[in-house]
Design a protein that fits this description.
Elements: E1 3-5, E2 10-15, H1 20-33, E3 35-40, H2 46-57, E4 61-65, E5 68-73, E6 82-84, H3 89-99, E7 105-109, H4 122-128, E8 132-134, E9 142-145, E10 153-156, H5 162-172, E11 180-185, H6 190-202, E12 209-211, E13 215-218, E14 229-233, H7 238-251, E15 252-257, H8 270-276, E16 280-283, E17 287-291, E18 295-296, E19 299-301, H9 309-317, E20 319-326, H10 338-348, E21 353-356, E22 359-364, E23 372-374, H11 379-389, E24 396-399, H12 411-417, E25 422-423
Parallel strand pairs: 2-15, 3-14, 6-7, 10-11, 18-20, 19-20, 23-24
Antiparallel strand pairs: 1-24, 1-25, 3-5, 4-5, 7-9, 8-9, 11-13, 12-13, 15-17, 16-17, 20-22, 21-22
Helix pairs in contact: 1-2, 1-3, 1-6, 3-5, 5-6, 7-9, 7-11, 9-11
């Protein structure tokens, strides 16, 4: 699917989609927590659908009731030995530890760029936890055979917090003969761990004591309640909303609803950047209004929220001066190497980007040109280029824009509802 984005002025109100980070974690918690869970406002992205498919294959029963999903589970009891994770990095890394709770041999696989993303974190960790493990030279497919036996371990979480999320989930649903600790070195993306811990608590699982994100201690006195029932609403997605907020800052006056201002989602930090860049923004309990205005350059450390890089680059393109974003080492193992793809695609639009050590320096405020752009099969690159194109001097085309289905399948329809001229 190719799209053409014309320069446009936006106006109107939009409701943000459900958080796929929350949706995938909620699916995992519903599976391991046993009992019956009702999810309201469920996500419908490709990653969300992958998570639903995974828990079905691991033994959960799924029923769709209107705009809710009912999940019944008796724990991890696989009905299929082959688990497809789609292109979801979180699902592949999180459900690896969860699948290892079973004593059956399970193979996890993925598609697209996921097959190239590193999984060698488990090479040393799984043997420590009595899990048999094979991989394709540190990448998918993975073959796992448990049952995982929690014990005191030390892990390095520099590559991704997603591996720690899976272990925290697995430990939180396990019977422990004694208090058990996961000691963590080099943890990045701490807000994502806050999100994991909040879901563990919401689902009545064993919440570990958090010692400054360096040690997580699970109490042996905890026992899962029998036949529990959980009602859980998936909150709005700050990651998707970040693109809409930037769109409002550079192309119109829009109102965004459905966001939790007290969310643990890392990408809520977009508000901080918008305010520092001089945006006209009004924040209320149930909505955020943002209007187009002249923007100034900013500095932001995105180490703990790397998914903000694409919308922030689009914002920086319209900020007068040189904006600096720190944390590009977190961009290598995404759907594309985002530091390179952002530099390449925004360069086509006349926005110079310099990569220097761990910094990305965007020289903004100049004329934005329409261009023929490529998605690099990366959903966030598609959205960043689309937002930037709204204020360009001429239309822009984006090849393979179908990549948005990974996280925000209604992105173009939502843009059109705000007045953007989009041809698909």
């Amino acid at each position: 699917m190719n799209v053409k984005i014309h320069p446009s002025i936006l106006s109107g109100t939009i409701h943000t989609p459900a958080s796929k980070s929350m949706m995938q974690r909620a699916c995992a918690a519903a599976l391991i927590g046993e009992g019956e869970t009702t999810l309201s406002n469920p996500g419908k992205s490709n990653d969300d659908q992958s998570a639903i498919s995974i828990i079905q294959n691991l033994g959960a029963e799924i029923e769709y009731i209107g705009d809710q999903i009912k999940i019944k589970s008796k724990g991890v009891k696989p009905v299929n030995s082959n688990i497809e994770c789609g292109e979801s990095g979180l699902s592949s890394r999180m459900f690896s530890s969860i699948a290892a709770l079973s004593n059956k041999r399970i193979t996890l696989n993925g598609s697209g760029s996921l097959s190239r993303r590193p999984m060698d974190f488990f090479d040393t960790i799984f043997p420590e936890l009595s899990v048999e493990f094979n991989s394709n030279e540190g990448k998918l497919p993975l073959t796992i055979k448990g049952p995982l036996k929690p014990k005191d371990i030390t892990i390095d979480a520099e590559l991704s917090s997603q591996f720690l999320t899976g272990l925290l989930m697995a430990y939180s649903a396990s019977s422990l003969p004694e208090d058990t600790c996961i000691t963590v070195n080099n943890l990045k993306s701490k807000p994502y761990i806050d999100l994991t811990l909040s879901v563990i608590e919401s689902f009545g699982l064993n919440v570990p004591m958090n010692d400054n994100y360096e040690k997580f201690t699970f109490k042996s006195s905890f026992h899962l309640p029998e036949q529990k029932r959980v009602q859980h609403t998936i909150e709005g997605d700050w990651s998707s909303a970040s693109f809409l907020l930037v769109a409002g800052a550079i192309a119109g006056n829009i109102v965004i609803k459905g966001l939790d201002l007290f969310s643990a989602q890392a990408d809520k930090a977009i508000l901080q950047v918008l305010m520092s860049s001089g945006c006209l923004i009004s924040i209320e309990t149930d909505q955020i209004e943002i209007r187009k205005t002249s923007l100034i350059s900013f500095y932001f450390d995105a180490t703990d929220c790397p998914d903000l890089f694409p919308p922030l680059v689009a914002l920086a393109a319209y900020c007068d001066g040189k904006s600096v974003i720190k944390g590009i080492d977190r961009l290598i193992h995404k759907e594309s190497n985002r530091s390179i793809t952002l530099q390449e695609e925004f360069g086509k639009m006349g926005v110079p980007i310099l990569i220097q050590d761990d910094l990305m320096i965007i020289d903004g405020g100049g004329e934005i040109n329409g261009a023929n752009l490529k998605s690099h099969a990366d959903h966030r690159i598609v959205m960043a280029c689309s937002i930037a194109a709204l204020g360009a001097t001429s239309p822009s085309s984006i090849e393979d824009a179908m990549a948005i289905k990974k996280s925000y399948p209604d992105f173009f329809e939502d843009l059109k509802s705000l007045g953007a001229l989009v041809q698909i």
